[in-house]
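Hey,

The postdoc asked me to send both predictions to you directly instead of through the lab channel. I've kept everything plain text so nothing gets mangled by the mail client. Protein one:
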Amino acid sequence: MARHIVQEANEAPDGRRVAPAAVRNSGPLIEALRVRLPSQGCILEVASGTGQHAAAFAAAFPALDWIPSDVDPCQRDSIAAWRRESGLKNFAEPLAIDIAAPWPVARGRAQVVLTINLLHLIPEPFVLRLFEEARAALSDRGRMIVYGPFLRGSSYASDGDRAFDASLRDRDPAIGYKSVEAVSDVALATGLTPIATDAMPANNLLLTFAAP
């Protein structure tokens, strides 16, 4: 199973976990995704975390079917709690997806595979595995969308990014920031073409890749 860091969050009595970062970035992500998501279809979110994003996105895009997932059973419980609280019909039960293993998803099932704040928390070899499985899950002309902090070449966007990356590598030397260029190379190797890079708050980026 892939090593991972479970994000810090508070837990409500109904089982929903609330992460401050998800509270902050849900709005900007929704606005950015409006021009990157299709008008209809299935969105597979990999490493959905607490489920806050899935709940917010399913509400913001009612014509899209939202399938969340997470490797951690506690996170899946939180996602399920957010799903119950939302009552949204386009918000599916969470899948157990481990990026280090084959995904329980039919080939070509999704029009979009989305992952948020994952790449800097996984070892380098798992980035390739993530894109390979995403490509298999995507339909023709589907899209892979990746959000998070990245290096630009070998440079950090800020001193804060440098300090955060150092703190991650202190916890686990195998994880940490990946460069936009390295991620794009992995995407190309799996048959996905970079088509957009959107600047986001706090120096984060939203990278979009397209399948043929």
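Protein two:
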Amino acid sequence: MTTEPLLAGVRVLELGALTNGAYLGMLLADLGADVIKVESPGRGDYLRDILGQIAPHRSPSHEQMNRNKRSVALDLRSPDGLADFWRLHATADVVVDGYAGDTCARLGVGWEAQRERKPSIVYCQVTGLGTTPPYGMLPTHGRMMNALAGAKPHAMGADGLVRAVPDPGPMDGTTMAGQGPFLAGHFGAQYILAALLRRDRTGRGCRIDVSGADAVVATAAQAVATELNDHLIRDRSTLPNKRDDESGSATYQYYETSDGRIVLLGALEPKFWQTFCRVAGRPDLADAVSGEADFASGRLDLRHEVQAVFHTRTLADWMALAREHLLPIVPAHRTVPEAAADPQLAARELFVRGDLGRGDGEFVYVGRPAVIDDAPFTLRRPAPALGEHTDEVLGSLVVPAGGGRGTDEERTL
């Protein structure tokens, strides 16, 4: 059985700072691509220096998002640095541009310059708002992407301060959609892989413009489509009831177990609800819901009945019943360590331990949300120090004749 990574032989140059480019580069590196961070000397990616320090220039965010990469420090404002970049570019398949606006273009290494030198290059720019007008040149951070997408509504409070408020839409809008930089990274990786497939067929590269705000909206497509087309809805009986927390759904609801843990029941369909009532010893409740997706909204009496049922067993007991009878019940963890200890998550490749080296101890990485039978997750190297691999990469660099893709031997450093 082969253990060759899925993207073995693909070289990616990553430019930028902070999360946008780093997370997308991480996704590609985890799949086996040779990801080289091209950083400015002196400062580099200052993700190393924010959000806590394990050791100088070693933040948890840096260790997480820059693992499995190499770092080359180049001054793109100098003739020598620019020349080295183009030598490196000639061996690359993909360039990830995580800078704001037209930064790379102003440095002379933007899309047009790259396409002219290498028409087969796949160039992916990942920004907060995209590069199109009117906002395309604005610098952004993660919550700004969510704000534009309407992911967390805010309003002026009685105390004179603006605070988060519940989303007024029936589906919570894009509230639960997640953070823009991470979602943009996933979309960017998807389109890069599609572009590489087309390039291998046609020899033609392309420019991909990914927006974090767009990604927040896109991953909330169900809620967004519902709210934008609300005027077309004739039957509202299957929409969630949002009058208040107490009158919410009884069949799709959080409940406490006898040992004080929380579970989420998702018995919307009649078959699941009826099985739950039978297994729980309450067949008298089976007819309390009807229809294909009945939220039992506003049934406070039913919620109390079901809560009493859940108080008869521990979390472990309920999960054993769920596995045995295929009930839609999951633990609702209240902390990250609690979730990480869950046997389901622990059994996958989602949490990976690795030695940071330099005496800094063991680090728990967030791995990948997929298990691949013949290409297990591999931590090949910890996140690099700024410029750690400059001599190694540039000193061994072999540019293929004509600036083409090159052989595996030419590209292996």
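Summary for protein two, as requested: The chain has a mean pLDDT of 85.

Thanks,
C.
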